[in-house]
Amino acid sequence: MPETRHCPQCGAAVQPDAPEGLCPQCLLREAMKSESELGKEIEGATTGFPGSIPPRPEELAQQFPQLEILELLGQGGMGIVYKARQPRLDRFVALKILPAEAGRDPAFAERFAREARALAKLSHPNVVMVYDFGESDERFYLLMEFVDGVNLRHLLREQRLKPEEALKIVPQICEALQYAHEQGVVHRDIKPENILLDKRGHVKIADFGLAKLLGQKAVDSVLTGSQQIMGTLHYMAPEQIEKPLTVDHRADIYSLGVVFYEMLTGELPLGRFALPSQKVQLDVRLDEVVLRALEKEPERRYQHASDVKSEVEIITHTNSQQARPVAEQANRRQDSEAEQLERLVLPFLPANKVEAIKVYRQRCRVSLAEAKKAVESIARKHGLPVSSSWDWIGIIGLILCLLGIGSLFLPYATVHLRMVIDAEHPSGNPEWTSYPTNSLFGWVWTTLLGTFLALGLYLLGTYAVGRRRRQRAWILIVTGIVVFGINAFRVQGTGESQLFGLMYVTLSVGFYVVAAEAVAFLILGVIALRLAPRNSVGRREQRRELIRDLHVQKWVAIKSYLDPVHILSILLCLLGIVGIFQSKVPFGELQVLTLQSINEHRSTGAPIATVFGYESSYILTIGIILVSLCVLLLATGAIRSLRLWRASLLVLAGIGSIVLMVWAIRSSGYDSQSADNFREQSAISGRYSFFVLGEHFTVNYTWPDKFQVWDKTVTVPDLPGGMGSPPGLTKAVIKYPVYLVIGIGCGLMLIGTLQMCTTPKLPHKPNFTKENTP
Amino acid sequence: MKESFATTHWSLVLAAGKGAAADAQNALAALCQTYWYPLYAYVRRQGHQPDDAQDLTQAFFAQLLEKHYLQSADPERGRFRSFLLTAFKRFLSKERNRERAKKRGGGRKLLPLDFEAGERQYNLEPAHEATAEKIYEQRWALTLLDQVFSRLRDEFDQAGKQQEFDCLKVYLTGEAGTPSYPEAAAELGMTEGAVKVAVHRLRRRYRDLVRDEIAQTVAGPEDVDEELRHLFAALRSPGS
């Protein structure tokens, strides 16, 4: 009788026929350990469904009637993947079902939807696409692109990758990472299992963002417990383990470094690891790439995946057989102070030179001028523009502002919008004041310089926006509006004249602001597109990347303004406003005549009422229609570019202008009734000067009988009733739209100024903000 | 493990229901093939002699496979283990009323069961007061474990890692009384880290196989844990 053994673990007697001579109790107890107790081995051998078998394809078919579930592809910590087919689209897809623990968190559904949407936006040849996502039977699932191939782990296990093959794979990974990072997505779990290669050797990266979505549990469970295998921790950047909240895209670059090392040498870079070139026949320059990617501190690593790619491609293309002696290698490992400074400063260039200089000065105690010079030389060395285009805009804006402010102090800098009357005033009518004839000059000067002020403030505001100083931008805008207001209200007169003055000013200013906006951005576009980095020695690839980035980014910023709809609407606006000025617009008593109309009158003797053979009212109407159309288009454009609040502003402007118009009519008293009364009461004669298209006119008139243009020996004979006189019914009809137009002008100006505050962010390399855990 | 519940033997059988699908038949046969010994032990513990026990077991299985006991709505159908025992009990109670001779041979398809080995094993069972049911349960658990280990061993053999399996299987019950990792590493010619990884993998695989084997005998994934607990409890009872 064999002696009874006892289990060392539990002390129970172990029968001779016990399975494998082991204590059955302990065996079963061991089998009962849950998933989390055993620890998640993220190597890909976990069962995604602890304690149960994954559903068979047929079972899943019920949950996904629109798919043909074909087979189980694999299981991992991130879920179970099936190969499926969409019969309607006749394509293969991968169906990933997330682990059940994921769904237990109530906030998960919302995070999942958000993350899945962000992932679905990732469309890149090297990123596994997400087609769809959802929840079925209490399990969350993702429908993804099916990759017919293997993952990098398989390749690493079965055959040692040749360095050339690794060097073909890495750039593709970099492209995928760079793309995703620009979209604001960090992978956080780059490892060979997640890097797929299809049959043509194309790299596809899977499971973007899933690590963040599924939470840190995986990391926690691997860290706790005494027997845990620190397998996949090797791919995690140090900050992912130590300071998870500070993790950003650079963690992916670290993981990339680990994978790169493993691809080259077949081993993980653990502890004091050997340089790749010491283990495999390699270009030694690759050592530095790998080492820099593996820097412990994120600041010392490559800041962008595209940088890694550039370096690798440069090394690949310029195949140097020189092997530098080890000593030299060691020396190069020590970064010079200059290189460190460069790395510090580069992220801020080219957009935020001010910040770059500040950072530089923090590091080295030098004067502002020296720091500026140093930063500029760094920029030049890397092929970046030395001065940002925003600087020019700011300078121009500043000059214009000074000009505009100066205009406020000129003696005749007032806006005149009324006739100069040297005759008696009709009773009951607003009082006219008289001005010297060169008040016209003052008017011109004021309008133009007020416009300069407008432009200047506008550009300064844009500059401030460019510098991300929105508070400053707002202050500038408000100042601008106040200045315009003051300007307008310096119009002498009462009641409706003031209103006219204000509206007139705003209309013209609005016109200028909108035009200035378009011009400013066109200029910006020209500046940006012509900005070509200078030739720098070497790093051709990097420069090309930079150029591409500059163009792409600046174009993206400009594009929203060069949007065809927007352009069309601005053009129509200009057309409409010009059309208004073409006709004889009865602005109260101001009548602006164009040279053409007067000439025409001169030659044909026809009443001045017609312009180009059409009655001015028609031109006016056309102008109004065009302006209204442009407002509509602006609104459409705003909606299309999803600037919904801008669209509502446009609508509000239209409504506001109608209100304004009604109020103007009511307060002006120029309805047909009183107009007729007025007409009957007495005659007014007067003289006013105006300045149109480079010509100075002085008009004598006797209301309502005749016009006389002095200084040009143009005699305007009597006009038939209804033109040049207080409006009859026809005129009343015309006046209302005029006020509408004026109101629209106000609205446009408002929009123009507010729009600059919604200018898209200054184009430069994306500033990856630290990800916040949801 | 590519099998899912739809293909686990018992769920197949259950799903087949009244229809005698070939799959279901084969599945049932496979189950019976694996777990016949607990029944044998049961019936032996009941007091029957080896010959009788042999006859009864065979006859029961034959009848089970032919007469489709499953048609009867049985609340215990959830677990094959309990179903089998209940069916067997019912069979035995009917059996007393019939002539045994009829059941011998008779051209029935018999399962190839190694009763000699079974008898030998039974003799090794500790003689104590454990009831037949208890023995049945215990043997069931042990049969399950045997099954798991044979599969595990096969896997390692196929991978050429017999030595590794032999060396590391002791870690499956825990750390107590096992050689330290450096020792194991020395014996196997692996690094300590690799040993740890291997142990971890072995544990995991073992666990998966246990759950899979249990899954073969239950109807749904939710039953696996319960069955596992039941078997653990069965083994823990004193006198094992």
Summarize the structure.
The complex is a heterodimer of chains A (774) and B (240). By secondary structure, chain A is an alpha+beta fold.
Please, could you describe this protein's structure?
The complex is a heterodimer of chains A (774) and B (240). In chain A, 52% of the residues lie in helices and 11% in strands. The C terminus of chain A is likely disordered. In chain A, strands 3-4-5-7-6 form a 5-stranded antiparallel beta sheet, with helices on both faces. A 4-stranded antiparallel beta sheet of chain A has the order 15-16-17-18. Chain A is globular. In chain A, strand 11 (586-587) and strand 12 form a beta hairpin. Chain A folds into 4 domains: 5-32, no CATH class; 57-145, Phosphorylase Kinase, domain 1 (2-Layer Sandwich); 149-320, Transferase(Phosphotransferase), domain 1 (Orthogonal Bundle), CATH 1.10.510.10; 390-758, no CATH class. In chain A, helix 19 packs antiparallel against helix 20 (439-466) and helix 27 (644-668) runs antiparallel to helix 29 (729-755). Chain A has 29 helices and 18 strands. By secondary structure, chain A is α+β, with helices and mostly antiparallel strands. Chain B is mainly alpha-helical and 240 residues long. Chain B has one domain (5-236). Chain B is built from 12 helices and no strands. Chain B has helices at residues 9-16, 22-34, 36-45, 50-67, 80-95, 100-103, 115-124, 132-158, 162-168, 181-188, 192-217, 221-236. In chain B, helix 3 runs antiparallel to helix 8 (132-158), helix 8 crosses helix 11 and helix 10 packs across helix 11 (192-217). Chain B is globular, with a radius of gyration of 20 Å. At the A-B interface, helix 1 of A face helix 8, helix 11 and helix 12 of B.
